Amino acid sequence: MTDEDLIAAFWEARQRGEHFPAAFFGRLSIDQAYRIQLGLIARRCAAGERQIGWKVGLTAPAIQAQFGFHEPVFGCILDRVPSGHVFAPDLISPGFENELCMRLGCDLPGPVTLDQAAAAIDVIYPSLEIIETRGPFTEQIALALADNAQQKTVVLGAPVALPATLEAIEVRVSINGQTVATGTGDAVLGNPLNSVVWLAGKLAAYGRSLKAGEIIMTGSFTRQFPIAPGDRIRSDFTGVGVVETGMTR
Q1: 129-154 pLDDT, tens per residue?
Q2: What are the structural domain ranges in the chain?
Q3: H or E stretch covering 216
Q4: 117 CA to centre of own chain
Q5: CATH code of domain 50-247
Q6: Could you tell me the CA-to-CA distances from 40 to 5, 8, 13, 126 in Å, in that order?
Q7: What stretches of 74-148 show up as alpha helix (H) in DSSP?
Q8: Following DSSP, what letter does each residue of 22-40 receive, concatenated?
Q9: Quick one: CA dihedral 130, 55, 116, 185, positive or negative?
Q10: What is the pLDDT of residues 110-128, one digit of tens each?
Q11: Helix/strand/coil for 50
């Protein structure tokens, strides 16, 4: 099948509510999955949505071990909500990751160096990525990438200037007032800016580039956690700020 045939088949499945079409289990390469993802995002934007940025996932050893896949991945961001937003309990097997989100102050075509990436960052946000597990993610990574790498939305705290160092920033994660994890920025490819470097280079292979004003979720400091109805979530990033969310019962 051509890329366009694959995109059309996945689009039709999506309209039926089938995010991981069973006919394609074990049949897609990672490259095909990215091309399908980008094609589906283009169709969603043509239908009225708007891409506002990118996510880089599977960056921390804890998450790579959790899902058995040992290289970063990318997805597209089409939605954001402010800290304090409370979700209705209608998400599909939802979860969250604890991340720094970076906003670009200028275009950043790849490939780029770490210094060029740092110079391009306007502000950063304490943030949570809200994910949905819409199919057998671990067993079918390629289909998960075609389905936009679990992305649902992102929760953003207040923006701050880019700190001089990111590796030592610590996050403390609590669910319903109980600390469930801590992590530091060096879990994200050694430095969250390396996610920007990786993304700029990876997108260049697909004829895409990073644009001024886009946001980039750089990857979780900790493993991924599920969200249950009634949960209240708080992540506190030292020197950056706090981001909170929750779900109604």
Answers
A1: 999 999 998 899 999 999 999 999 99
A2: 50-247
A3: strand 215-220
A4: 18
A5: 3.90.850.10
A6: 12, 8, 11, 28
A7: 114-120, 141-146
A8: GGGTTT--HHHHHHHHHHH
A9: positive
A10: 999 999 999 999 999 999 9
A11: coil
